[in-house]
Amino acid sequence: MTEQTELDDIDRRILSELQNDGRIRNNELADRVGLSPPASRRRVRALRERGVVKTIRATLDEKQLGYEVTSFVTIQLQSQSQATVQAFQSAIAEIPLVQQCWSLSGEADFLLKCVAFSVEGMHQQLLQFAAMPSVRNIRSLPVLGVAKDAPLPIPDFPAASTPVE
Fold first, then answer.
1. Buried b / exposed e across 41-55, counting CB within 10 Å, b at 16+?
2. 51 φψ region: left (φ > 0), alpha (ψ -120 to 50), beta (else)
């Protein structure tokens, strides 16, 4: 970790509390981590400014909103040129049902998390991906269920000294 992202014990406790409840009131957060409310507010603001806390938002239940199908989709492009990759990323950014898009190294170039109202809707999405220029290969991995959805572990020591397992 760089000096800019080093975390002390209070920062780690704040991050843990925010991951568990992003709507926690500052007074309660301050109590839980042993700070005054103004000091707590300053710490949270500093964590946001440093980019440690990217955003705080609600996690919605896809099924409650009618999205019956979640699928991970791998995409392999015909070329990994900067222009091809940027064009693909721009196209994907315009598709609202693509929830996340990760750039990969290895057999696939991208991993997408997609939702759809139905299997037919997911099929139409896959056809849309296939019609994009420079797409070589598509694989869809339909989700049957979520086995784990945990908060990010907060490190208590610098990453540079993290032992390799």
1. eebbeebeeeebbee
2. left
Q: Which helix (H) or strand (E) holds 101?
A: strand 98-103
Structure-token pair, residue 51: 């980019």
Q: 77-93, pLDDT tens digit by residue?
A: 999 999 999 999 999 99
pLDDT in the model for residue 157:
56
139 DSSP β-pair partners:
74
Nearest to 112, CA basis, from 94, 97, 90, 128 = 97
Q: How far apart are CA 96 and CA 100, in angstroms?
A: 10
- Both tokens assigned to 87: 């064009």
pLDDT < 50: residue spans in the chain: 1-4, 159-164
Q: Torsions phi, psi of 156, nearest 5?
A: -110, 10
Q: pLDDT of 35-47, one tens digit each?
A: 999 999 999 999 9
CATH code that applies to domain 63-142: 3.30.70.920
Q: For the domain made up of 3-58, give the CATH fold.
A: Arc Repressor Mutant, subunit A (1.10.10)
